[in-house]
């Protein structure tokens, strides 16, 4: 396994200390693992500390999955992780990004019944 694969695995399991250690050892925060995904794309969505750490180290918040077009913000919205969604937005994730099915993060939150996420994103949209 490569450092990027290890970093992606640590991110996927919400292992903040492991992510920090691998970044210190030189793992590329925007590198892709053997499945073609970045650590931010595979991170445990409920792990806000991992999201904040990756983003603070330069992870690109708007990287889209090549097969679906979804971004990490789409994933957080679909799964209902409002805290992670807020961190992604803090680091300039695009709430208007559309996936290959023309869905925005708010659309996926609505389809999944995450009313708190829908309301938050609608308020954000109204403020801009």
TrEMBL record:
Ranges occupied by ANK repeats: 68-100
Biological processes per GO annotation: negative regulation of cell population proliferation; regulation of G1/S transition of mitotic cell cycle
Any one GO cellular component localisation term in the record: cytoplasm
SMART domains assigned: ANK
UniProt keyword list: ANK repeat, Repeat
Molecular function terms, GO-annotated: cyclin-dependent protein serine/threonine kinase inhibitor activity; protein kinase binding
The protein, known as: Cyclin-dependent kinase inhibitor 2A/B (p15, inhibits CDK4)
UniProt source species: Gadus morhua
């Amino acid at each position: 396994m490569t450092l990027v694969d290890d970093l992606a695995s640590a991110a996927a399991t919400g292992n903040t200390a492991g992510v920090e250690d691998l970044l210190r050892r030189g793992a590329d925060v925007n590198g892709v693992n053997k499945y073609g995904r970045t650590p931010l794309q595979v991170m445990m969505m409920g792990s806000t500390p991992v999201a904040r750490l990756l983003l603070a180290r330069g992870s690109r918040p708007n990287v889209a999955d090549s097969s679906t077009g979804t971004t990490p913000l789409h994933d957080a919205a679909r799964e209902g992780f409002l805290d992670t969604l807020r961190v992604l937005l803090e680091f300039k994730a695009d709430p208007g990004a559309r996936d290959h099915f023309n869905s925005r993060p708010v659309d996926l939150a609505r389809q999944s019944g995450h009313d708190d996420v829908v309301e938050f994103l609608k308020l954000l949209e109204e403020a801009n």
